[in-house]
Amino acid sequence: MLIAGRYRLQDVVGRGAAGEVWRAFDESLGRPVAVKLLLPQGSDPSAASRFRLEAQTAGRLNHPHVVGVLDFGEHEDRLFLVMELVEGDSLARLAGSGPLPAERVALIAAQAAAGLAAAHRQNIVHRDIKPANLLLDAAGALKLGDFGIARFVDDPGAALTATGQIVGTSLYLAPERALGRPAGPASDVYALGCVLYQLLTGRPPFQADTALAILHQHLDASPVPPRQLGTSLPPAFESYLLGLLNKQPEDRPTADQVADWFDRGAWRGAPEPLPQELPDQGHGPAPSTVRGPRITGPGAAVPGTPVPGIAVPAPSVGGVYVPAAETESKTMVHRPGPHRPSRPFTRRSRLLALLGGLALFFSALLAGMTWFSPDTGTAQVPEAEPSAIVNPSISPSPASNGTAPSPSPTPSLSSSAVQTADEKTTAPADAKKSPKTAGKPRGKSKHRGKGKH
């Protein structure tokens, strides 16, 4: 039979309730094609409308993972659609041979999702994603076909009473569609998740004796995790697959996100590196690719040489955490992890430093009280002045003649207090015998040694 004067039909490759698909040859361009012929229009008027819709929607798509539409017309009161001929098997036959390896299913997932994403960008919802509509060419590339002519998609009531069709459709029907709501892009993603589940495990996520029971499972039941069925699968793949089967459409990823996730190999689930101890100075690991908060602000410098890729505790004063950005060469990078041994270590160090400072202070206080006790008789004590924290990086000025420290200084943890304590405890024992009168030579007295650091 010659259609439209150029497409010569050769043999039937598929039949359905609304029409049949032929292998044909385009005599004008000299290439093989597929021709879908609709049954005579008088038998089902609504089928003609759906057929025209398929031609219009699929004709708007031009994507390597979508079956291309080449021509559309009418021949002897029958509509026909000329499409790209896919020389290969459908996933329906492939799924019947048993579970597939995770790597092959991931490739199928990336290609099928890419084709769906192209349709969704054109505001086209496939509405009948199932293994029979996912075709593989001779090179193994996937092609998404059969747009717009899905049976019983727009009429759930008819679907529940039909035989031979609802079982195949109900196995991949999204929960919102089981409730009679319109199909959306998320419905296609759910159906794709059901197909991937079947390819991995050899069975659909939900099975029952009747189509109605299967629809109830889509609404209320949770799918069994594939690894519990003995499927060898990375945990990341399993978790993402179950996410495609979320009951709420808004909880599922988009087709674009699914395609990107599988295409970049995230399904392999490379484990996150464990946190590491700070290595010796100059022997740190290679810079990490993990981004995180960096330490900035005044007073935020960390003692020691920075080690890229290792989390370093922020200082207690002036440290500010800001969102990650492209950092300079010695920026500290935080790597998330459950174990952080450096934090309790820092608190204990601060406690020890506090106790040591107090011990030195009270030792200095005791030495001062002994030095300036009443039996010395010569020291004049000036009125106590407000204490000030002295920057240890600035050298102290020489002591004034005839003055002495206050006998009861206010407790302080400043660096000057600890410094004074060290000087007093190291003063010569015979310093008490030195003259204390202003203007007289002090010799090797204690006050002369005070200016040394």
TrEMBL record:
The chain crosses the membrane at residues 351-372. SMART domains: S_TKc. Coiled coil: none annotated. Keywords: ATP-binding, Kinase, Membrane, Nucleotide-binding, Serine/threonine-protein kinase, Transferase, Transmembrane, Transmembrane helix. GO terms for molecular function: ATP binding; protein serine/threonine kinase activity. Its EC number is 2.7.11.1. Residues 421-433 have a biased composition (Basic and acidic residues). The keyword DNA repair does not apply. The keyword Kinase applies. It comes from the Bacteria. Residues 269-307, 388-453 are annotated as: Disordered. Residues 439-453 have a biased composition (Basic residues). Residues 7-262 form the Protein kinase domain. Residues 295-307, 396-417 have a biased composition (Low complexity). PANTHER family: MITOGEN-ACTIVATED PROTEIN KINASE KINASE KINASE 20-RELATED (PTHR43289), SERINE_THREONINE-PROTEIN KINASE NEKL-3 (PTHR43289:SF6). This is non-specific serine/threonine protein kinase.
